């Protein structure tokens, strides 16, 4: 799974970089903008952003401001704080996931298209619900791991 995620994210970032390179060369060097390139670049850009957040959730490497950890002296205290943080993240994430699901249902019903190339936007609208669902799975797994560490005494 780790290899697949890194290959997918690397591919997406290369596609985005290549698209931006083509845009700069054609627009500023050749002075012939490629119509619709921005629309086609939305797909890999949105998926890269969302899957990057999923990857950070999988690796448990989101940016955090753990100010309370300064005052906690034991590993047990750190684990309890991590459990509280994961529970709050799970509650907020599930709430956002329900909104994303409603938006996905709306996007399916409306079936919007991009203004120039008439590409269905549903395929990058759905990235939000997929990404949030995966983030909630990883958050739940981290929560279970912290609870297990607290129970087994690994966080003493």
Largest sheet: none
Series of secondary-structure elements, N-terminal to C-terminal: HHHH
**Mean pLDDT rating:** 92
- The tally of structural domains comes to 1
Question: Which range does the strand content fall in?
Answer: under 5%
Short structural summary:
By secondary structure, the protein is mainly α. It is 76% helix and 0% strand.
List keywords for this structure.
156 residues; mainly alpha
Strands, helices and their partners?
Elements: H1 2-29, H2 37-59, H3 75-110, H4 122-152
Helix pairs in contact: 1-2, 2-4, 3-4
Describe the structure.
The two termini are 31 Å apart. With 156 residues, this protein is mainly α. It has one domain. α1 (2-29) runs antiparallel to α2, α2 runs parallel beside α4 (122-152) and α3 (75-110) runs antiparallel to α4. It is built from 4 helices and no strands. The model has no long low-confidence stretch (mean pLDDT 92).
């Amino acid at each position: 799974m780790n290899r697949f995620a890194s290959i997918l994210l690397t591919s997406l970032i290369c596609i985005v970089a290549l698209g931006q390179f083509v845009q700069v060369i054609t627009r500023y060097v050749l002075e012939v903008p490629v119509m619709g390139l921005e629309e086609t670049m939305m797909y890999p850009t949105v998926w890269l952003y969302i899957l990057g957040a999923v990857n950070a959730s999988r690796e448990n490497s989101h940016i955090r401001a753990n100010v309370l950890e300064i005052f906690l002296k034991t590993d047990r205290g750190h684990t309890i704080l991590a459990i509280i943080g994961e529970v709050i993240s799970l509650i907020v994430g599930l709430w956002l996931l329900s909104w994303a699901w409603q938006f996905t249902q709306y996007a399916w019903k409306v079936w919007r298209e991009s203004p120039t190339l008439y590409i269905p936007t549903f395929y990058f609208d759905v990235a939000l619900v997929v990404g949030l669902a995966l983030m909630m799975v990883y958050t739940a797994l981290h929560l279970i791991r912290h609870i297990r560490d607290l129970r087994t005494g690994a966080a003493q």
